[in-house]
Amino acid sequence: MPEGKSSIVSTDTADVIEFLMPQLMEVFMRSGEPVKFLPQHPDDFDKAHAATCLVNSIFTAQNNGWAVLHDFVKDALLFKCGVIKAYYDTEVSYTTESYEGVTDLDLAALTADADVEIVTTTPANAEDPPLFEQFDVEVRRAKRVSKICVENVPPENFLFSSHATSVQDAEFLAERSYMTMGELLAQGYDREDIEPRLGLGEGYDEQETQVRHRQIDGGATHSYAAREGEMVRVVEAFMRLDLHETGIPTMHRVLAIGQDNFVLDVQPMKRAPFVVASPIRVPHRLVGRSIAEMVADVQKVKSVALRGVLDNLYLHNDQRMVVVEGRVQIEDVLSSHSGGIIRLTRRAWFSRCRLRKSGRRGWPCLIIWTTCGTPEQAFQNMRWVLTRTRCNPRPRRRSTPRFKAVRRKC
């Protein structure tokens, strides 16, 4: 915004969404069981109850289901679609261990474990010669934890075919993300395939991403560009492929990295692990409309009207002046503190610009937009106000002509 101009923004979009969030969250979380299985036959009651307890435990306890559902609903209200990804993952973490005085038998027992990797082996320094040869060993041990993961996918990182109407019939669904080379190496991929493709590529500067991670309340600015040398773009796509040339394409998971989309892995899948929802459904489309775009026009109109009123108020409090150069002390004119003086070499070498007040039109418009229930009603009422208010004062009524009395001559 130009310096000296109001940059206030009406909060209608945030007010509407924050008003809807508690009501929507209460629908899913009030009972304490966001997921519930219903028995289809009389003998299925115990199975349905067990499945309900298991799935709710996985969703709420292992994956912080309240936060996942909250972000899912808010993404849908703001960005047209909320996306959840559910998948089975095995997380691998590594720890380094050191052993001293290890014999050949101990070393063979360590290497028998598939999760143990020998890093260094050096002969042990002992004062007395040992009966068996001993070593000082440093090993790296892998710890694997498998679980079902339920995560949110940022809407700007969710890719889909334009003609898709649902997740089931979509020909292409993908998640775009950025990972470090260490994370890809931990998953078992080769360094030779990853190093030539380090770099961000497209997508990291999406407007939604920049706005989401911009500096707020003194926090650090989030930027992938600072880590460009160690990060790589990763696209996990789910598409139908006919790899065996049978004429029937089946669902596969394709993992590609880099700007050239180098394929690291291809695996068959039963279905895509995404759940997509929109607050306002549009027929024959995967993504519908959001509440934010329905309220955006109201917010823009109110912001423009409020900025105009405030700018006019600023100019009335600190009006512009017309001065003759060289006849007025410019420093005195630019200083607008209370009780200040303006030094002149001659009288009437400066004057104030005439300014019309816009509050007479602006405030009624703001009141109408605030009190009316729908934008259509607001437009009708605002048109009525604008046609019946004037910036200039009303002209005086013309006085009735006075006639001189004429005395008739008799």
SSE succession? HHHEHEEEEHHHEEEEHEHEHH
- Report low-confidence residues grouped into runs of 5 or more: 217-221, 399-410
Structural class by helix and strand composition:
alpha+beta
> What does the main sheet amount to?
5 strands, antiparallel
Work out the strand percent: 15-25%
Query: Regarding quaternary structure, how should these chains be classified?
Result: single chain
Largest sheet: spatial strand order? 4-5-6-7-8
Q: What is the rounded distance between the termini? A: 82 Å
Rg, rounded, reads: 36 Å
In total, the number of strands is: 11
What is the total domain count? 4
* Tally of DSSP helical segments: 11
Helix amount, in percent?
A: 25-40%
Mean pLDDT: 79
Shape field: extended
Describe the model.
With 410 residues, this protein is α+β, with helices and mostly antiparallel strands. 33% of the residues lie in helices and 23% in strands. It folds into four domains: 1-80; 93-145, Alpha-Beta Plaits (2-Layer Sandwich); 154-287, no CATH class; 293-388, no CATH class. It has eleven helices and eleven strands. α1 (12-29) packs antiparallel against α8. The longest helix has 27 residues, at 291-317. The radius of gyration is 36 Å and the shape is extended. It starts with 11 loop residues before the first helix and ends in a 22-residue tail after the last helix.
Task: Describe the structure using short key phrases.
410 residues; alpha+beta; Alpha-Beta Plaits; 23% strand; disordered C terminus
